[in-house]
Fold NUDIX domain-containing protein.
Amino acid sequence: MDEASFLEGYDPRKYPAVAVTVDVVALTIRDGRLCVLLVERGAQPFAGRRALPGGFVREETLDQAALRELAEETGLTPGGSSAEEDTAGGHEAGSELDRVHLEQLGTYGDPGRDPRMRVVSVAYLAFAPSLPEPTAGSDAARAYWVPVDEAKDLAFDHDQVLADGLERARAKLEYTPLATAFTGPEFTIGELRQVYTAVWGEELHAGNFHRKVLSVPGFVESTGETTARGGERGGPKPKLYRAGDARLLHPALLRPTREDRVR
Amino acid sequence: MDEASFLEGYDPRKYPAVAVTVDVVALTIRDGRLCVLLVERGAQPFAGRRALPGGFVREETLDQAALRELAEETGLTPGGSSAEEDTAGGHEAGSELDRVHLEQLGTYGDPGRDPRMRVVSVAYLAFAPSLPEPTAGSDAARAYWVPVDEAKDLAFDHDQVLADGLERARAKLEYTPLATAFTGPEFTIGELRQVYTAVWGEELHAGNFHRKVLSVPGFVESTGETTARGGERGGPKPKLYRAGDARLLHPALLRPTREDRVR
DNA sequence: TCGAGTAATACTCGGAGTGAGAAAAACTCG
DNA sequence: CGAGTTTTTCTCACTCCGAGTATTACTCGA
């Protein structure tokens, strides 16, 4: 930020009031479908419409505000930092929110996006393993998971925010180990493949996926164990893996069908 | 944005005042070096320190605010939209700012990042062909281009903002035709390679680069012309190209030396 | 208990893309 | 003119990919 000379001594409080909020695009996978957390709006404007959870920023960092909003709406209590964290081994006292990956998505501040006043909203993207339906918390009563393809006609510019979040999520699956943020601490290659299938909305060749995941250094590491049972519809007991220490996937797992890349 | 029930009728103007600003990381290439536009701060805090250009958001979109700040600091006048635009053919009346590519980088809002009050700053990233030294405009007198490796100890959290901007720029060169935003409307493959060299800070194999650029559909298209003269230090007259219509490069031009990818 | 169906895993094959190096040709400058 | 430089094109070996096939180990229902 810079004050030009003519702004010297300028008091920004004299500006028309600007409110800063955070909105959260929280994604999870339930029953093999990619879902987003929405709340039902009770008040005007957009009363009765669904919206992304969010609220005003208090005396806290933007990251903290996003995590707080997510905690309030899901009824879960934040345990640790906003970065995902492996409690490899037994389940410690950490909240389920400890495993949530949170990152800033973008900021939406067009005049008029909220009819009441100028509101600048910082959107966040959250990735979580399958979380319980948020009914517990008092505040969370109005929040629920909705499959992303049914999340339309949202309040404000939230259709756009959600679309941007989905595109970000799909892209990040290609070159980061983000998919493991959707699984439990231990998972099978098949479960990992289902994450990609749900987010990308495309079937993947099981054999090639298997080969590629295991060939990327640091993506997954074997636990040496297998599941206790085979799949529900048959098949051998798959091996179990946990997330490795890679931050970027190399080589990347690129999405198929990329003819639509040129303008 | 969502108002929880207990916020019904809440007036956000009762919150401690929050100011919203835009900061611009404007990059260009001068003499083969990647440079960023900085201003010298005259007032406290951080008087005498260098900072990214920026200022308060007015009644305008965030994108417009960023373009306005950039125009004010460079002394150039904005002509068209914020998106880059090809005036293929003759030079029309458009400003040099028409060819600037502008995109949102991220938002920085830690309490205390500005000692005076709570300031939430939306950072933008701008890419421009070599622009004149900004001396013309009244307001721009304090702004100048600085090689990025000499841009240290900036005011506020601008070291971090600049670092984030550089990483974004380096990454986008890999999978988008962004490099053409640093060149003139017509350019040679060698000039394009120098853009990559300057931004990535690494030498590239000329033969392989040539092959890859021409093999990516829609990256560049031939004008059928060559330059009037060969290079200053010799070599044949290179062919001229202009930007194609691709929005994403496929296959991508990946950076070399990727051992440092894992945590 | 058997047989059908399914999933995990491991192959093979041909094609595309890549880094490194070589080389021919075209041009500048001294 | 000659040395040095750049553009442009090849070659070669290697990696990676998509598609297909095969094997094996399961579950479940008849």
